[in-house]
């Protein structure tokens, strides 16, 4: 069986379409990468911002510790635990 011009044409047409789709996708990805690279330069915190964020987190943790270990909160937690144990029994 001899290959005709038409029988050889269709695999190359499919290959061209596939290449066009891949080329289009590569172009989309390069644009997406360029946009992300521009925003990525501004992402993250500098050393000073880390220091302020760490101090704020430590201050919040200290305040939370004071609230949780206060007498009122301890009595509320004890009452809650006792109520739960009564319901379970």
Name some characteristics of this structure.
single chain; 89 residues; mainly alpha
Structural commentary:
The protein is built from three helices and no strands. It has 89 residues and is mainly alpha-helical. It is elongated, with a radius of gyration of 33 Å. The termini are far apart. The model has no long low-confidence stretch (mean pLDDT 77).
Helix content: over 70%
Largest sheet: none
Shape descriptor reads: elongated
What sequence of helices (H) and strands (E) makes up the elements? HHH
Mean pLDDT: 77
Radius of gyration, in Å, reads 33 Å
Uncertain residue segments:
none
Q: What is the β-strand count? A: 0
Distance between the termini: 88 Å
- Total of DSSP H or I helical runs spanning 4+ residues: 3
What is the percentage of strand-forming residues? under 5%
Structural class: mainly alpha
């Amino acid at each position: 069986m001899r290959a005709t011009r038409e029988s050889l044409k269709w695999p190359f047409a499919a290959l061209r379409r596939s290449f066009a789709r891949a080329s289009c996708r590569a172009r989309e990805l390069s644009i997406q990468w360029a946009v992300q690279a521009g925003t990525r330069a501004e992402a993250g915190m500098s050393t000073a911002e880390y220091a302020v964020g760490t101090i704020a987190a430590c201050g919040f943790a200290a305040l939370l510790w004071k609230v949780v270990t206060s007498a009122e909160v301890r009595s509320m937690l004890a009452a809650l635990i006792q109520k739960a144990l009564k319901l379970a029994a």
